[in-house]
Specification:
5-stranded antiparallel beta sheet, disordered N terminus, alpha+beta, 6-stranded antiparallel beta sheet, rod-shaped
Length: 627
C-alpha cells in the first residue's frame, strides 16, 4: 500500500501543508477490487444517464462507487456562486454509511473541514489524493476529483476513508476519475432540465391563468395540451382532459368530424387558420360560441403532428350581438311601417349621418342624393327657407333635452309640384361642452292633409258666416265628462258674453225654464236610446235681463263608444221668441174668435128656439079659430 504524508498544521503558518502526491507506495486495492470498481463505475454512469429523479440517481450512483471503493463517505461540493472568486465550497450532495445502509449526509463536519483545506491549498481544477491532518481526533484518506460544468470548475467529488492506510492507487484513480466529467455533464443536464421544467411550469401557470381556451391536439384528435379554462368549460380537470377527444365531451357528431377534418387540413397545409365563430354543444346540450385561431406545430422534419389553438369564449358577446341584431331588425321593421322620413343630421359637419329613405324622395332615387343635407336645403320653398333653416338652427341649439321642435314648410318635387311637410326635431347627441352634435328629424308629407285643412278651413269659414248670418248658437257636449262648449252666438242669444258662461252642461240646464226642462230631457233621452235620428225641442231660457226667451234646440249624438254608449253630442240653438210669441198671440186670437163663435152659436140657438116657440104659439092660437 502506498504511504502518503499527512496534511499537518505548522505553528509558524497556521496552515495545513498540501498533501504529497508523488510517493510511490503500493496500492491497497487488488486486481479484483479494481474490477469491482470498474463495474461500480459503469453502474453509476448508467444510473446517472437513465434515472430521471436526481436525488435517487446521485444516491444510487455514489452508493455503488462507495461500496466498491470501500469508502466511508462520498460528498459532492459546489463552489458557492454567491462568493465568486474566493472559491468557497458548499455541500451539494453527500452519502454516508449508517447501520450498514447508505443515507444522505446533509452536513458532515469532517468532510466539510477537508473541503475547506482543499479549496485553500489545492488547485481545484486538478485531481488530488492523500491524507489529512487529524481533525476531531481523526485522520482521513481522500480522493478529490474536480467537476467541470459548462466549461468551468463547478466543484469537486470527494471520497474519504476512515482508515488512512486505505487509499487508491493511480490505476484505480483513473478508473474512478471518469465519473467527474460524467457527473459534470449530469449536473449541467439536470440544471438545464430544471430550468426547462421551471420554464415549462411558468408557461403552464401563464397558460392556466389565461381566460382564453388554450389547447393542442394531435392527428388522432387527442388533447396533448389544455389549460384550466378549457377544462373548466368542459366540466373536468386538465389532467382528465389530456389524451381525450372532443367526442368525449361534445354532442354534435358532425361538428366533431368537421373540427378534426379542419385540424388535419391545418397540419397538412402548415397554414394557420382563423375561425371567427364556432358553435359547440356539450353533452348537456349547452351551447357555446368560440372564436379560434389554430396553427400547426411544425417539427424539425418540416412536418406538423399537432395543431395549437387559442379560443376566446364569445358566447355572451354572440348572444348580445344576436339580441342587438334582432332589435335592429325589429326597429327597421317598425321604421319600415312609419310613413315618416327619418334623418339624423351632423350639425357641425352639415351632413346626414342617417336617412331611412330606401326608395325615392321627392321623385329622386336615393342613390342620386350625394348629400341629402344639401339636397334638402335646395328643395325648400324660398318663402319657407328662413323658418325651416335659419330659425331652426337657432332653435335647435337652445332646445332642451326632450324638447320637440315642430314646423311645416314646402319642398319641391322633381315634377315641379310644391309639397307640404311636417317636421318634428329634437337633439340626438351633444358634445362634452354641451353644444349640439346631432339632431333627429321626423319628416312627414302632409300635402293632402294641408289641402284638406285649407278646404276645411274655407268650409268652416263659410259655415261660420252662415251661422253668424242665421244667428245660430252652437253647443258641444262631452257626455262622459259633463263638459260643454258654447260659441259666442249661443251666449248672445241670451244677452250674455262668452266670458260670462262656464263650459259645462249645468250652464244650459240652469237657464232652462223649470216647466220645460223635463220635456227637453225626455226628448234628449229618446235620442240617446236611439229611438230618433236626432232630437228637437222648444223651451224657454232665461236671459241676462231676467226675461224668458223661446229657443229651438236641435241636436244629435256624433260619437259612440264600442259598447254603443254616447260619448259626444252637438247641436244648435235658434231664437224663436218672436215666432213663438206671434204663435201664442195668434193662438190667443183664435181662442177669442172661438169664444165669440161659441157665443154666436148660443145666440143663434137661442133665436131658433124662440122662432119655434112663436110658431107653435101661433099655430095653437089659430087652431081654435078654425074650429
Amino acid at each position: 500500500m502506498q504511504q502518503y504524508k499527512q496534511l499537518s498544521t505548522t505553528p509558524e503558518s497556521g496552515k495545513n501543508p498540501p498533501p504529497d502526491f508523488n510517493q510511490n507506495d503500493e496500492s491497497a486495492l487488488s486486481l479484483n477490487s479494481a474490477l469491482l470498481l470498474q463495474q461500480a463505475t459503469n453502474e453509476a454512469l448508467s444510473c446517472l444517464l437513465n434515472e430521471s429523479n436526481p436525488a435517487i440517481a446521485l444516491l444510487t450512483a455514489l452508493t455503488a462507487l462507495a461500496e466498491a471503493g470501500k469508502c466511508s463517505e462520498v460528498h459532492i461540493f459546489e463552489i458557492d456562486p454567491a462568493v465568486g472568486s474566493s472559491n468557497k465550497l458548499q455541500l451539494f450532495f453527500g452519502i454516508k454509511k449508517e447501520s450498514q445502509n447508505w443515507v444522505r449526509s446533509e452536513n458532515d463536519p469532517l468532510s466539510c473541514h477537508l473541503a475547506e483545506q482543499l479549496q485553500r491549498e489545492l488547485d481545484l481544477g486538478k485531481r488530488a489524493s492523500g491524507k489529512t491532518a487529524p481533525f476531531a481526533g481523526q485522520s482521513l484518506s481522500f480522493l478529490w476529483l474536480p467537476v467541470v460544468v459548462a466549461e468551468r470548475v463547478w466543484g469537486g467529488l470527494l471520497f474519504t476513508y476512515e482508515k488512512p492506510e486505505e487509499v487508491w492507487g493511480e490505476d484505480e484513480e483513473q478508473i474512478i476519475a471518469i465519473m467527474a466529467p460524467t457527473l459534470g455533464n449530469y449536473i449541467e443536464r439536470t440544471r438545464r432540465e430544471r430550468k426547462l421544467t421551471n420554464k415549462q411550469d411558468y408557461l403552464h401557470k401563464i397558460i392556466d391563468l389565461n381566460p382564453s381556451f388554450i389547447f393542442a391536439r394531435n392527428r388522432e384528435g387527442q388533447f396533448t395540451l389544455v389549460n384550466q379554462s378549457l377544462a373548466k368549460a368542459y366540466g373536468t380537470t386538465a389532467d382528465e382532459l389530456l389524451h381525450k377527444k372532443d367526442a368525449d365531451f361534445l354532442l354534435n357528431a358532425e361538428e366533431i368530424a368537421r373540427i378534426q377534418e379542419e385540424d388535419l387540413a391545418i397540419m397538412n397545409s402548415l397554414q394557420a387558420k382563423f375561425v371567427p365563430i364556432q358553435e359547440i354543444v356539450d353533452l348537456k346540450g349547452n351551447k357555446r360560441y368560440l372564436q379560434i385561431i389554430k396553427s400547426p406545430v411544425v417539427r424539425e422534419n418540416g412536418k406538423a403532428d399537432e395543431v395549437l389553438g387559442v379560443a376566446v369564449d364569445i358566447t355572451e358577446e354572440h348572444k348580445a350581438r344576436q339580441k342587438a341584431e334582432k332589435e335592429q331588425q325589429f326597429k327597421e321593421s317598425v321604421i319600415a311601417t312609419i310613413p315618416d322620413h327619418i334623418v339624423i343630421v351632423d350639425k357641425e359637419n352639415r351632413k346626414a349621418d342617417y336617412f331611412n329613405a330606401k326608395g325615392a324622395f321627392l321623385g329622386y332615387k336615393f342613390s342620386e342624393l350625394n348629400d341629402p343635407y344639401i339636397f334638402f336645403k335646395q328643395r325648400i320653398h324660398p318663402n319657407d327657407f328662413d323658418l325651416a333653416v335659419n330659425q331652426f338652427q337657432k332653435r335647435i341649439e337652445c332646445a332642451a333635452a326632450e324638447e320637440i321642435l315642430e314646423t311645416t314648410y314646402r319642398m319641391q318635387h322633381k315634377n315641379g309640384e310644391w309639397l307640404w311637410f311636417y317636421e318634428r326635431s329634437k337633439v340626438f347627441s351633444r358634445h362634452t361642452d354641451g353644444k349640439v352634435k346631432e339632431y333627429l328629424i321626423f319628416l312627414q308629407e302632409i300635402t293632402e292633409k294641408k289641402w284638406a285643412e285649407e278646404a276645411l278651413k274655407e268650409s268652416e269659414q263659410r259655415l261660420e258666416m252662415a251661422i253668424s248670418g242665421a244667428s245660430l248658437g252652437i253647443w258641444d257636449w262631452d257626455i262622459s265628462t259633463g263638459k260643454a262648449t258654447y260659441n259666442e252666438e249661443w251666449a248672445n242669444l241670451l244677452g250674455l258674453g262668452l266670458e260670462e258662461i262656464e263650459p259645462k252642461l249645468e250652464t244650459f240646464t240652469s237657464l232652462v225654464h223649470p216647466e220645460d226642462i223635463t220635456r227637453a230631457w225626455d226628448k234628449i233621452q229618446e235620442h240617446i236610446q236611439k229611438k230618433t235620428e236626432f232630437f228637437e225641442v222648444e223651451f224657454r231660457m232665461k236671459t241676462k235681463s231676467g226675461d224668458w226667451k223661446w229657443i229651438y234646440d236641435r241636436g244629435r249624438v256624433v260619437q259612440w263608444d264600442e259598447n254603443g254608449l254616447p260619448l259626444r253630442a252637438s247641436g244648435t240653438h235658434m231664437d224663436i221668441d218672436e215666432r213663438k210669441k206671434a204663435e201664442m198671440g195668434l193662438a190667443e186670437k183664435f181662442k177669442e174668435l172661438d169664444e165669440k163663435n161659441r157665443e154666436l152659436r148660443r145666440y143663434i140657438d137661442s133665436n131658433m128656439q124662440l122662432e119655434n116657440f112663436a110658431y107653435i104659439a101661433s099655430h095653437d092660437l089659430k087652431e081654435p079659430l078654425r074650429t
